[in-house]
């Protein structure tokens, strides 16, 4: 206990130190603020002067909406205001050049590669026998996005994972997408399977999610739902008015010979898996998302075939005051040979609230999760779990956070309850 | 942790919720000033959007005006009043939440790039009038001929019921 307290103290001191370092010196910040205020004053003054000269607001807007009798091509349009205004020829020419340069600079050039990284450092201590406490490096995650044209985009995600003997590198996502319009986008590659909410909302960067850990049903390396998927995916909005419906439909290889992995190098049983996900973001309730998913596959395990049918549903409120996430999935396995069928269920409910104090940097949260696999289950090993997670997230900057959480869980009937304390700093760069 | 400690922690947690719910939200404060016009390139095939449609565009959920014309989002840099209004009324997010939203959006492979940042109304004017599909938000008093001003929920800036102010 004393040891845990000292570690916590060190953690808090480190948090304070980093926060102190992230703020610019007071005099510099003051100077910047003064300059910004000055810019605002000048802008306001220009606006006032323009307003005095010009006609009233409504007339300006109606004039703006009048079709121009001298409509210019797009590349010349930027030069129009300068051309219309009075001024010496030389000055006017320079202004035109500057404007053309601004427009050229802001236009998207192809390919336009953007790289973003995510990382985390963790500490864990539990009373589970045989599990040592200590620090560990989480995942170093690199995300690549590159528009190849205004219709074609590439997305990639690579992780570096610490192992006892070194690091493993994993291609998590590798996607090329063609956008026809908002209603139809077709992509090929390796995805996070669009089953439920968490698996496609948060991916690998721990900074993206409120909590330190993912729910057990969607944990990386887990088997309850197939986290990854190799194939093609069609997605888009569904014209549905206020219902705000969208869809994902995909066909791919399904689970590999190790069922936690997709068939990256080929399908193991010459049978495609398919997935469909429909969700709604109602227009009247900004922040709400409801959805349902189905996933169908044939699994081959030790020479035996099983039909897998996953159905799931989710309801989330994505605003942070409060944040509410709830997801449920049922996995049905039916042995092709014996017709014996089993059903396993899992769900979680997570509640968080970004507090209005401390510049809205603090967000306490709680999650309850439950997984049940029947004794007759033929594909999964026992995954039973009943657990609670209580924690706090503190955003030290816009791009880095500290999190600490207490977990209490029990796996299987008769197993002892496990208590654990976890801490993490995660960031994006 | 014994059972009593657990119970106390749970009670404190439960009791804190009503206090939290009653506290004022920083993102909801109102400020005075001129209306913020939604302006687009003159060739954009829309002239009237509901506020929720504007929100869909800004959230990157609507990325095409038509199958051949992608939306190009322009947003003022921090501190500008136009940005404050857009974040408060449309996104309903704080500055930090807005930044995090776009990092997550790109990370989920739902968009290839965040909105382009513009530093002045002149720059906005130049870009909107030059880039097909561009949409920006500017003080209605600064709107000049050559841009198309969209109606929002059927209202133009200056109308009493206009929502962006």
Question: Could you characterize the architecture of this molecule?
Answer:
The complex is a heterodimer of chains A (429) and B (165). By secondary structure, chain A is α+β, with helices and mostly antiparallel strands. Among the domains of chain A are: 1-45, no CATH class; 176-428, Porin. Helix content of chain A is 21%, strand content 45%. Chain A is built from 7 helices and 17 strands. In chain A, strand 9 (273-280) and strand 10 (288-301) form a beta hairpin. The longest helix of chain A has 28 residues, at 26-53. In chain A, 29% of the residues are buried. Residues 7-26 and 68-86 of chain A have low confidence and may be disordered. With 165 residues, chain B is α/β, with parallel strands linked by helices. Chain B has one domain: D-Maltodextrin-Binding Protein, domain 2, CATH 3.40.190. Chain B has helices at 3-22, 51-58, 81-91, 95-107, 121-130, and strands at 36-40, 48-49, 64-66, 69-70, 72-76, 116-118, 134-139, 148-152. In chain B, the strands form 2 sheets. Chain B has a 6-stranded mixed sheet. In chain B, strands 3-4 form a two-stranded antiparallel sheet. The radius of gyration of chain B is 20 Å and the shape is globular. The model of chain B is unreliable at 14-31 (pLDDT under 50). The chains are: A alpha+beta (429), B alpha/beta (165). At the A-B interface, helix 2, helix 3, helix 4, helix 6 and strand 1 of A face helix 1, helix 2, helix 4 and helix 5 of B.
């Amino acid at each position: 206990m004393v040891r845990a307290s000292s570690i916590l103290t060190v953690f808090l001191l480190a948090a304070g130190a980093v926060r102190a370092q992230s703020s610019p010196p007071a005099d510099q910040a003051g100077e910047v603020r003064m300059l910004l205020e000055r810019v605002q004053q000048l802008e306001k003054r220009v606006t006032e002067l323009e307003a005095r000269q010009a006609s009233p607001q409504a007339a300006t807007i109606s004039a703006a909406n009048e079709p121009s009798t001298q409509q210019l091509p797009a590349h010349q349009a930027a030069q129009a205001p300068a051309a219309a205004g009075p001024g010496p020829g030389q000055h006017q020419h320079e202004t035109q050049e500057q404007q053309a340069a601004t427009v050229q600079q802001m236009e998207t050039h192809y390919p336009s590669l953007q790289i973003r990284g995510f990382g985390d450092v963790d500490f864990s201590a539990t009373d589970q026998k045989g599990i040592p406490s200590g620090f560990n490096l989480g995942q170093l995650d690199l995300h690549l996005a590159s528009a190849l044209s205004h219709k074609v985009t590439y997305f990639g995600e690579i992780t570096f994972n610490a192992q006892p003997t070194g690091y493993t590198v994993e291609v998590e996502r590798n996607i090329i997408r063609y956008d026809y319009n908002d209603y139809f986008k077709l992509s090929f590659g390796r995805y996070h399977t669009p089953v439920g909410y968490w698996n496609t909302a948060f991916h690998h960067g721990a900074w993206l999610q409120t909590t330190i850990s993912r729910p057990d049903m969607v944990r990386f390396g887990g088997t309850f739902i197939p986290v990854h998927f190799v194939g093609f995916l069609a997605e888009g909005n569904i014209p549905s008015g206020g219902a705000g419906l969208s869809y994902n439909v995909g066909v791919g290889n399904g689970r590999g010979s190790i069922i936690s992995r997709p068939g990256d190098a080929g399908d193991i049983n010459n049978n495609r898996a398919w997935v469909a996900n429909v969700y709604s973001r109602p227009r009247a309730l900004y922040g709400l998302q409801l959805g349902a998913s189905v996933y169908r596959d044939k699994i081959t395990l030790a020479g035996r075939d099983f039909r897998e049918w996953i159905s799931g549903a989710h309801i989330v409120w994505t605003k942070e005051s409060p944040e509410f996430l709830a997801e449920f999935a049922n996995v049905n396995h039916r042995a092709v040979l014996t017709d014996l069928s089993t059903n396993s269920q899992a769900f979680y409910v997570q509640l968080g609230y970004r507090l209005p104090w401390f510049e809205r940097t603090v967000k306490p949260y709680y999650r309850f999760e439950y997984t049940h696999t029947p004794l007759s289950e033929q594909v999964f090993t026992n995954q039973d779990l009943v657990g609670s997670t209580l924690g706090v997230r503190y955003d030290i900057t816009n791009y880095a956070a500290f999190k600490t959480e207490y977990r209490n869980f029990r796996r299987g009937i008769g197993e002892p309850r496990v208590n654990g304390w976890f801490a993490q700093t995660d960031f994006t760069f | 942790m014994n059972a009593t400690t657990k119970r106390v922690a749970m009670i404190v947690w439960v009791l804190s919720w009503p206090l939290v719910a009653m506290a004022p939200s920083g993102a909801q404060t109102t400020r005075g000033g001129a209306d913020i016009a939604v302006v687009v390139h003159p060739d954009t095939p829309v002239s009237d959007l509901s506020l929720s449609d504007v929100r869909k565009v800004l959230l990157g959920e609507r990325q095409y005006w038509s199958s051949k014309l992608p939306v190009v989002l322009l947003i003022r840099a921090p501190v500008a009043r136009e940005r404050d209004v857009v974040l408060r009324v449309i996104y309903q997010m704080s500055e930090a939440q807005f930044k995090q939203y776009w990092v997550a959006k790109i990370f989920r492979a739902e968009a290839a790039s965040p909105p382009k940042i513009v530093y002045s109304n002149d720059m906005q004017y130049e870009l909107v009038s030059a880039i097909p599909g561009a949409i920006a938000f500017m003080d209605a008093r600064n709107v000049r001929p050559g841009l198309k001003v969209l109606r929002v929920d059927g209202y133009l800036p200056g109308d009493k019921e206009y929502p962006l102010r």
